[in-house]
Design a protein that fits this description.
The complex is a heterodimer. Chain A is mainly alpha-helical. Chain A has 15 helices and two strands. Helix content of chain A is about 70%, strand content about 0%. A two-stranded antiparallel ribbon of chain A has the order 1-2. In chain A, helix 3 crosses helix 15. Chain B is mostly helical. Chain B is about 70% helix and about 0% strand. The longest helix of chain B is centred in the first third of the chain and has 33 residues. The C terminus of chain B is likely disordered. Classes of the chains: A mainly alpha, B mainly alpha. Chains A and B meet through helix 1, helix 2, helix 5, helix 6 and helix 7 of A and helix 1, helix 3, helix 4, helix 5 and helix 9 of B. Chain A: Belongs to the binding-protein-dependent transport system permease family. Chain A: This is ABC transporter permease subunit.
Chain lengths: ~300, ~290
């Protein structure tokens, strides 16, 4: 009886299901199909005939390959650096911008600082190569003016990760500050006035009034960023890498691409990719529920 | 508002903000200046200058008359326009259906969330494109990541706000789902459509990694892939053309960095045109800065 009424409801909404059909077809072809295809990690790839099941062979191989352990380390280090170093920058930026409540200056800063977010990493790399150029770049002009020898930060193993951090911060600081700025703008002026009348210093106002208002977006964003630590920035690395520094910034994504699509070791690359995807799912799910518990706001 | 007097800390904050902003403004303006400079004077242009030395469109002429660049530009435009239209349309349709009270909504949503967080492998994505015979077809990039589940959820949140009474009234007037969708939902969802469409467009326009994998032939390359060749791999022969390089004629003597700059400027012009709309719609609340009372 109950099943019957369900069927009747489905039949009544047949147009809706029909509308959803192309969308579902898309998801199945472009997402489900490749995800199922990842079972290749447990098989030997054969051009002719069926693939042969080999169990965990490729995962064992993966974890005894020093290069994979290196790229796993690089991924985690670069992500952690981005997570901890870049995280406070948009907050500070919003706090500073909040000091200029009205006027052209704030608007000009906003218009310009949101822009890099929309540039592709190819374009950003082009800009940064000029910026860091040992012969004509602004940074090196400054270093030379101070009496030090010019540095090529892009081919130096010690500095390349910092170039990634700096360029990511440069790209995201403005855009990522929007959410904090909105929270600051939402604070009622009467709160400030009350604090001012009570003789509160600016420091007092920032720590006692502004920061508590930023707590929820801060916690949410930090936790959600933890969910993405397996993604250290494929597009960025591909554009900033070169032979002299690749061992320092080679990440799982670039490794999978190289081993899988360039060298054609499909099963091995898929094992690395599956490892990354599964850890990613676990991280995103756990951080989502954690954020939801702490702030009642999750990833979706 | 409170405390209008200029304090030392405010001056310092203003200085820091200005320095940060200039680090973004100057390099971008410098590229534009370099591309527009007179070829005879461009070597005088310093990295911190934002005004062209002399004026000439020769760099743009050379770059755009390069058949590789013009083809890549058209390909990028096609992928972005077709891709964004399809993305917006199907995202909104899916959001509309999923905000109705249909049987099986919960399993569908769980399915979509799994889709959102489980990233398919790049090897498998490549194989799917290959099996669909879409390798080296612009359609691979039009269809790739057509529906972003995250945007779909944002769209659903918005459609949930549309008063049920409006939809009920249309139903009583005998409107079918398609009419309702086109006549009521689409116009009401104008603003989120614009916002989401803009994100889709930026992602399509900027995608270079998947484009470089799926589109292998030179005829089907896109601007970002070509740009990478000029900017990151510093391949001047592709930009100027081997024939001109060998002849060492006027074109070969043009400054390579100016030609590069011109190509980058071409790649960011569509964004610069959209930027005011982005600011107006997406960030309007933050931009106006008015305090909500």
């Amino acid at each position: 009886m109950k099943a019957d009424s369900k069927l009747r409801r489905i039949w009544a909404d047949k147009v809706l299901y029909l509308l959803l059909l192309p969308c579902m077809a898309y998801f199945i072809i472009f997402h489900v199909w490749p995800i199922i295809g990842m079972k290749l990690a447990f098989y030997d790839f054969r051009i002719i005939g069926d693939n042969v099941f080999v169990g965990l062979k490729y995962f064992r191989e993966l974890f005894s390959t020093p290069i994979f352990l290196n790229v796993l380390g690089n991924t985690l280090i670069i992500s952690a650096m981005k997570l901890f170093i870049i995280f406070p920058i948009p907050i500070l930026f919003a706090l500073m911008l909040g000091e200029f409540r009205n006027g052209r200056f704030r608007k000009a800063v906003q218009v310009v600082s949101y822009m890099p977010h929309f540039l592709s990493w190819v374009v950003i790399a082009g800009i940064w190569f000029e910026f860091l150029s040992p012969s004509t770049g602004a940074i090196n002009e400054l270093i030379k003016a101070l009496g030090f020898p010019a540095q090529d930060f892009l081919t130096n193993k010690e500095s390349i990760r910092w170039v990634l951090i700096a360029s990511e911060a440069w790209r995201s600081v403005g855009w990522d500050s929007i959410i904090y700025l909105a929270a600051i703008m939402g604070i009622s002026p009467s709160l400030y006035e009350a604090a001012y009348v009570d003789g509160g210093s600016r420091w007092h106002i920032v720590t006692r009034i502004v920061l508590p208002h930023l707590f929820i977006p801060m916690v949410t964003i930090f936790i959600l960023n933890v969910g993405f630590i397996m993604n250290a920035g494929l597009d960025q690395v591909l554009n900033f890498t070169n032979d002299s520094v690749n061992s320092k910034i080679d990440i799982i994504d670039t490794y999978v691409y190289r081993v899988g699509l360039v060298n054609g070791q499909y099963s091995f690359a898929t094992a690395a990719n599956l490892f990354k995807s599964v850890i990613g799912v676990i991280l995103v799910l756990s951080t989502h529920f954690m954020a939801k518990k702490l702030t009642s706001k999750g990833a979706w | 508002m409170f405390r209008r007097k200029v304090t030392l800390s405010k001056v310092m904050i203003g200085f820091i903000l200005s320095a940060l902003t200039l680090s973004m403004f100057v390099p971008i303006m410098n590229l534009i200046a370099r591309a527009l400079s007179n070829p005879d004077k461009v070597h005088l242009l310093h990295g911190y200058e934002i005004w062209p030395r002399g004026f000439s469109l020769i760099h743009f002429q050379v770059v755009l008359s390069n058949s590789l660049v013009s083809k890549a530009l058209l390909n990028s435009l096609f992928i972005t326009v077709a891709g964004t239209c399809l993305s917006i349309f199907f995202t909104t349709i899916a959001a509309y259906v999923l905000t109705r009270k249909i049987v099986g909504k919960t399993p569908l949503m769980i399915f979509l969330i799994i889709i959102m967080i489980f990233e398919p492998g790049i090897v498998q994505e490549y194989m799917v494109i290959k099996d669909l015979h879409l390798l080296d077809s612009l359609w691979s990039m039009v269809l790739y990541r057509m529906i972003n589940v995250y945007y779909l959820i944002i769209m659903m949140r918005f459609l949930e706000e549309i008063p049920v009474s409006l939809i009920e009234a249309a139903k009583i007037d005998g409107a079918g789902h398609m009419t309702m969708f086109m006549k009521i939902v689409m116009p009401l969802a104008r603003i989120p459509l614009l916002t989401i469409g803009m994100f889709y467009a930026v992602a399509k326009w900027n995608e270079f990694f998947k484009s470089s994998i799926f589109l292998s032939s030179r005829d089907n390359t896109v601007l970002q892939v070509l740009l990478r060749q000029f900017v990151v791999e510093r391949d001047s022969s592709a930009l100027i053309g081997t024939a001109d390089l060998l002849k060492n004629n006027n074109i070969a003597q043009l400054d390579f960095s100016s030609l590069k700059a011109a190509t980058i400027v071409i790649a960011i012009i569509p964004f610069l045109m959209l930027y005011p709309i982005i600011l107006k719609h997406y960030t309007s609340g933050v931009m106006e800065g008015g305090v909500k009372e």
